[in-house]
Amino acid sequence: MRERNAALFNLRAPRFTVAVAVVLVVLVVVQLLASLMFYRAIDRQTLNDDHARRIAELLVVSDRTYAMSPRRVPEVMTTRYLQADVAPNPNVDPDGRDGDLAGIAQRIVSWEPSLADRSLRLSRVPGTAHRKDLAGSIQLAGGRWLNFRSRDISSMWPVASRAITITMAASLVLLAIGLAALLLLSSPLRRLTAAADQIGRGREILVREEGPRDVRNLSHAMNLMQARISRLLRDQTKSFEAISHDLRTPLARQKIAAELLDDQELAEMILDSVSEMDALLESLQGFLRAQTLQATPEPVELGALIREAVASFGDLATLREQADVMLVTYPEPVALAVKNLVENAIQFGNRAHLEIERNDAQRWAIVIEDEGSGIPPEHFQDILDPFFRLDDARGRDTKGFGLGIPTAHRLMMRFDGSLEFGISDWGGLKAVIYPPRPEADLPDTTTLRTLTIAAR
Questions:
Q1: Quick check: helix, strand or coil at residue 86?
Q2: 97: which of 2, 143, 218, 374 lies 20 to 30 Å off by Cα?
Q3: Exposed, middle or buried by CB within 10 Å (0-12, 13-18, 19+), for 272?
Q4: Is-contact 432 380, C-beta < 8 A?
């Protein structure tokens, strides 16, 4: 359960950062779209005024040029933006004016009031590159018509285009600054998340109380929490050691008294009870020690480490021979975990078969299989709880206290190793230990006593 909570905590920090980043991006996009709409409205108004001014000047100059030299009107009036020609008939239908064109016509008259009584026709016509041109016709003196064409009425006004470009560039810069600030502000949260994950694994973490006030308060609370937990564990361990010491004295007296009894059956019953109590105290001591054990990573030959750990079991534990595997890990926690799992395999599966193998991720694993009745997969999580026993396979008349697997799991969890379960080819339980890799998991530390995580 604690591993699940740590995993959820790890996921929430990046999700929070992403959510804030998405909100920031949405706000910038909305602001950018609003600016674009604003500049587009300004552009349309300005563009219409520009075309109206151009046409008004064209018509006035055309009248004067036509009065002096009718043939020179097309030559004089045609420019890069305007095309003009004199013809007997207009090129524009008198009913082709829409609302925008009516507004342009009014602006033309406002620029040149002398054109108010002239027959002026305007229309939009297809231009180049899928654009629209403004075409028009106005009657000249003598009944002829001046047909003109103002190019690209749909194009953006250069000033508005530059304003939009500047707005987009500024928005992108502000977005980049905002995302950078968000990453900087969320950095303490990510560090505290990493610290919480390590604390959940039983490590002692020193979190620097730096940064904003809320982060400092949270860091201080985490340090206080660790101090209380550490003190609780120490008190628990000391209390158990005192109880264990006090219990072993009367147990020793019980053993001596049993050996003096004439009733052999009663003596054996008492000795069995004494042995069971000794085994229980030893199991509890190992379980509590797994929560406070300190270790230093060392290079070890994995096969030799395993053989030494299971030497006391004799032929009941066999390791398949293979090439030497050198690994930097924590020897004592790995050896204790292997010993507990092998003892469990022998206790409930008669024999333990060990093998060193490499998984698909190229990580070394220690596989421990037994020949027992096995454990259903739905109970793989349950067997991590102390004192859990299966009613069918492990009745109360079976030796063992349900602490071997939990002890191995605590050791691997504290030192960044892992423990998995499966169905053995021999029919029993298959336990897979992935030894800790401090060179990969904790590159900045050499021991587990203190891991400093700055809350900047």
A1: strand
A2: 143
A3: exposed
A4: no
Give percent of the chain with pLDDT exceeding 90: 6
Whole-angstrom distance, CA of residue 66 vs CA of residue 58: 12
191: tokens are 């560090």
- From residue 361, how far is each of 323, 354, 409, 431, 434 by CA, in Å? 19, 20, 21, 18, 11
Alpha-carbon distance of 360 to 430, in angstroms, equals 18
Per DSSP, helices labelled H in 261-369 are 264-292, 302-309, 331-349
Short-list 161, 165, 166, 186, CA closest to 24? 186
The stretch 307-311 carries a mean pLDDT of 90
Q: Is 140 exposed, middle or buried (0-12, 13-18, 19+ CB in 10 A)?
A: middle
Could you give the CA distance from residue 373 to residue 370 in angstroms, rounded to a whole number?
9
- Rounded CA-CA distance 107/150 in Å is 15
Give the integer Cα–Cα distance in Å for 204 and 398: 37
- Which residues, including other chains, have CB under 8 Å from residue 53's CB and lie 6 or more apart? 107, 111
The alpha carbon of 150 is separated from its chain's Cα centroid by a whole number of angstroms, namely: 56
The mean pLDDT of 31-57, rounded to a whole number, is 69
In which band, very low, low, confident or very high, does the pLDDT at 338 lie, cut at 50, 70 and 90? Answer: very high
Inter-residue contact 328 to 299 (CB < 8 Å): yes
Residue 126's pLDDT band (cuts 50, 70, 90): confident
Residue-wise pLDDT tens digits, 205-233: 777 777 778 778 888 888 888 888 778 87
Q: β-strands 317-319, 352-358: how paired?
A: parallel
The strand pairing partners of 368, in sequence order, are 354, 431
DSSP label of 352: E
Closest CA to 66 of 78, 77, 51: 77
